[in-house]
């Protein structure tokens, strides 16, 4: 990882390079992207780039790390200590979908990481899952959720969020067969309330402690 900038100006420059890399990698893919294209978009010289990053690979890996940190913050920033686990799930998914709408590049960049930097891909998902596991384990001990395997449930929940986000946030209301099928062209949609509520009912039923589901004896 590159050294942290020592000044506020340096931090702004580094931020500009990462923001530019986000757009360039999403638009062109890793193979077709270049440091020249990134620096042109960021409005800095190539020499300035090398003050903060050693290579195209390093800026890509640090971008994945940066997006991961920011999406995890978005998923937890509205959670409070007095919330139940289901309430936390609701706020977490809302935050994730908001972030995805603002940063549709997240999907393509994470997929690229499978081939460009498998280590970064695993870290991205594992860091999100670790938070889920911790929260689900505590909720199970409090009796808020059923006798589930927190690890299995964590990966399943992450899969639900990713697929719902892809279908409604990235592809938009028309779905994969419509004009908004290109994730890079339609990253401004919201998950409809009816879809979100249906998803949360599914999750609540899946996590519920035995005997607490609606209509259960």
From TrEMBL:
Name of the protein described by the UniProt record: TetR/AcrR family transcriptional regulator
DNA-binding region in chain numbering: 34-53
Domain HTH tetR-type span(s) in chain numbering: 11-71
Any single Pfam family the record assigns to this protein: TetR_N
GO-annotated molecular function: DNA-binding transcription factor activity; transcription cis-regulatory region binding
Organism ancestry: Bacteria, Bacillati, Actinomycetota, Actinomycetes, Micrococcales
Family annotation (PROSITE patterns): HTH_TETR_1, HTH_TETR_2
Taxonomy, superkingdom: Bacteria
Keywords: DNA-binding, Transcription, Transcription regulation
């Amino acid at each position: 990882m590159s050294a942290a900038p020592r000044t506020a100006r340096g931090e702004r420059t580094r931020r500009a390079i990462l923001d530019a890399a986000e757009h360039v990698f999403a638009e062109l893919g890793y193979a077709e992207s270049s440091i020249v294209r990134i620096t042109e978009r960021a409005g800095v010289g190539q020499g300035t780039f090398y003050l903060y990053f050693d290579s195209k690979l390093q800026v890509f890996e640090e971008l994945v790390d940066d997006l991961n940190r920011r999406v995890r913050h978005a998923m937890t920033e509205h959670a409070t200590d007095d919330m139940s686990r289901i309430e936390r799930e609701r706020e977490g998914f809302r935050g994730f979908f908001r972030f995805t709408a603002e940063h549709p590049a997240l999907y393509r960049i994470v997929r690229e990481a499978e081939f460009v930097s498998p280590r970064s891909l695993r870290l991205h998902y594992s860091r999100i899952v670790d938070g889920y596991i911790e929260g689900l384990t505590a909720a199970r001990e409090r009796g808020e959720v059923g006798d589930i395997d927190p690890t299995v449930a964590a990966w399943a929940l992450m899969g639900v969020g990713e697929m719902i986000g892809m279908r409604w946030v990235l592809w938009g209301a028309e779905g994969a067969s419509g004009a908004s099928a290109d994730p890079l062209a339609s990253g401004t949609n919201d998950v409809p309330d009816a879809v979100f509520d249906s998803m949360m009912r599914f999750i609540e039923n899946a996590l519920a402690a035995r005997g607490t589901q609606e209509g259960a004896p």
